[in-house]
Specification:
This protein is an alpha+beta fold. The protein has three domains: 223 residues, no CATH class; 144 residues, no CATH class; 180 residues, no CATH class. It has 15 helices and 17 strands. The strands form three sheets. Strands 1, 2, 5, 6, 7, 8 and 9 form a seven-stranded antiparallel beta sheet that branches. Helix 2 runs parallel beside helix 13. It starts with 5 loop residues before the first helix and ends with a helix.
């Protein structure tokens, strides 16, 4: 048994790693600079930010540059050994081909482990930081777009809209102003209604010479308006949208506004437009390390888009559960308790039962109490004293979503009374009373229910109030908050149980439940495909190093570039199949693994065939 040719191996390793590191350095620098060209040309990044982005892009570029650099380095190193007849000398000394390629195999194993660690633990961090640097906020996006003479594209109620302005200036003071914005050179109306919701988290821009255009589904102009100047407030939303992208709330307040829609024309001093601009960065599993991917696969709710769908299902389920809770309380106790949005006032609804309105299932008809033959609402103030009582001939209740600007969606209760006796209402002003808006939103059902009690006062009766609304209420026992805090597996089980009991009453759960399951399944497939892609890329690097060395020894009479191309094109095909297989696995499941790993397997088979041809001759 001969001893291993350690001296020869060290000699080959030294030359090969020098070639690999030099080639990898050049490729990584070129790829990193290519990523910076577009944002630099569009003026979205400063020179310092460009240097930062180049540094952050180098390690992610290693995932693709290192396999090809290793293949090229091995090809050049073994080609030099072959062209100098050192391979023939080693064979004459009893060194086999298998022993000759051991430095390449060992280097491939090292590179396999290095790429595995980088792709699972290091590269995701650098990708995330690089994306954060490129994903500029909406203020920078609007400012750079207008300065380049382009229109800012956004969506208004699902329709495409464009905003063009002659000039733009950033207002550094983040506080809302009242009156003219002196920081913008005396232009733009500030403060007022648009600024009432503003706070320190807002950024502001001043625009002049504004044109605002929206298009319909057919691509025709649906509405257009112009203004002399405007102030724009921008604030980034804390939670991502359903597609995983965070967005920025934009409030546009133009001055000397003129709008045209169809043949109509409107003119006014000021008008407010609100819309959202999606940011370029979104939550993506590619930013997560190996441990984070495993944790996300066990708890998909950690990802914003999944949690957003979980919340939609929870809100739909909470609406049903709160309605059932109210109905059970009326049936068993004849009364249901609620509190207002401030938690300071208590309301007691007295009735016999709830019955869904057939023409509008979002609403429930409150059946009067058999004793008093009326629907009664008692209001108890936090300061104490006698309650204020409203007694009505008929009442309706709706459980729905309450939308607020600064808080998350909540489940609220809207009570509407008809034919309230004015003598029992009292004269004290009750917070939360009056108005037609409500927690559930939308319009009320038609109040000509044939089952309405006969003693209900007609709308025009003397001494009666035709309609009385109590809005933004929530049950005293906050069941909705408990449901909103449940994880998605529990919500899915609860929804399945509700659908099994009464599919008709729980019909509103079908769409959000299916959407949550679809999104969760897609996420799990994406996580699995990302894990397999990272392993396959590392494995392809090992095979590419071995293939480069084999082809250099077998085609030693050819030019180095020609030899490398015999290894480069099969390796490129393998990388493409890995990327394609990852997407197929994400979309269709396990069948995509045949494509993902098929390229690596074919590359390895090609290397084995070429090695056997080399050893045979």
């Amino acid at each position: 048994m001969r001893s291993a040719p350690i001296t020869l191996w060290l000699y080959v390793l030294k030359d090969m790693w020098r070639q690999i590191l030099l080639t990898a350095g050049v490729l990584v620098t070129v790829l990193a600079f290519a990523l910076v060209v577009k944002p630099l040309a569009e003026g979205l990044l400063s020179p310092w930010q460009c240097l930062q982005l180049i540094g952050l892009s180098m390690l992610p570029a290693m995932q693709y540059a290192l396999p090809f650099a290793a293949c090229f380095g091995a090809t050049l190193s073994y080609y030099r050994l072959s062209s100098d007849n050192e391979i023939i000398a080693a064979q004459a000394g009893g060194v086999s081909h298998r022993s000759l390629i051991m430095p390449a195999i060992g280097s491939g194993v090292v590179l396999f482990l290095v790429l595995l660690v980088l792709s699972n633990f290091v590269i995701p961090r650098f990708l995330h930081r690089g994306e954060q640097l490129v994903a500029v906020n909406a203020a920078t996006f609007i400012e750079s777009t207008i300065k380049r003479g382009r229109a800012v594209r956004t969506d208004v109620q699902g329709r495409p809209a464009y905003i063009y302005a002659d000039t733009v200036r950033r207002i550094e003071d983040s506080r809302p102003s009242s009156g003219r914005a002196s920081a913008a050179g005396g232009g733009g109306g500030g403060g007022g209604d648009a600024a009432s919701a503003a706070n320190v988290g807002y950024e502001r821009l001043w625009l002049s010479g504004i044109l605002f255009v929206t298009f319909d589904s057919a691509g025709q102009i649906a509405w257009q308006g112009s203004a002399r100047e405007a102030i724009v407030w921008l604030r980034r939303r804390p939670t991502p949208d359903a597609d995983g992208r965070s967005s920025t709330e934009v409030v546009l307040k133009p001055v000397d506004f003129v709008g045209v829609q169809g043949t109509g024309r409107a003119q006014g001093g000021e008008a407010i437009q609100t819309f959202r601009i999606p940011n370029s960065m979104k939550e993506d599993p590619k930013f997560l390390s190996f441990g984070e991917l495993r944790r996300l696969s066990r708890t998909p709710d950690l990802l914003g888009p999944i949690d957003e769908r979980r919340r939609r299902l929870a809100l739909a389920l909470a609406e049903i559960e709160v309605a059932d809770q109210t109905r059970d309380a009326l049936r068993s106790q004849g009364a249901a308790e609620f509190i207002d949005s401030n938690g300071t006032t208590r309301y007691v609804l007295r009735g016999a039962d709830l019955r869904r309105v057939p023409r509008d299932p979002r609403w429930w008809r409150i059946r009067p109490d058999p004793g008093s033959r009326a629907v009664t609402v008692e209001r108890y103030s936090a300061e104490g004293g006698a309650p204020i009582v409203q007694r009505a001939g008929a009442g309706w209740l709706r459980v729905g979503i309450s939308n607020t600007l600064d808080g998350p969606d909540q489940v609220g209760v809207h009570i509407r009374l008809q034919g309230v006796s004015a003598q029992v209402v009292g004269t004290e002003s009750a917070g939360g009373l009056g108005g037609t808006g409500g927690a559930g939103g939308g319009s009320a059902p038609a109040f000509d229910d044939p089952d309405a009690p006969g003693e209900a006062l007609p709308p025009d009766a003397a001494g009666a109030i035709s309609e009385w609304n109590i809005t933004e209420l929530r049950p005293a026992t906050d069941l909705a908050s408990v449901i909103l805090g449940q994880p998605s597996p529990m919500l899915q089980q609860m929804s399945d149980n509700r659908l099994a009991v009464s599919a008709r009453e729980a019909e509103s759960l079908v769409a959000p439940l299916a959407e949550l399951r679809r999104a969760t399944a897609s996420l799990l497939r994406e996580i699995f495909s990302k894990q397999q892609e990272r392993i396959a890329m590392a494995a392809a690097c090992l095979v590419m190093v071995a293939l480069g060395s084999i082809m250099a020894m077998r085609l030693r009479e050819s030019l180095p570039l020609k030899i490398y191309l015999w290894a480069f094109f099969p390796a490129l095909a393998a990388v493409l199949t890995i990327s394609t297989g990852q997407q197929m696995t994400h979309r269709h499941g396990m069948m995509g693994l045949l494509v993902l790993w098929g390229g690596v397997a074919m590359l390895a088979a090609y290397a084995v065939v070429e090695f056997r041809r080399l050893a045979r001759h």
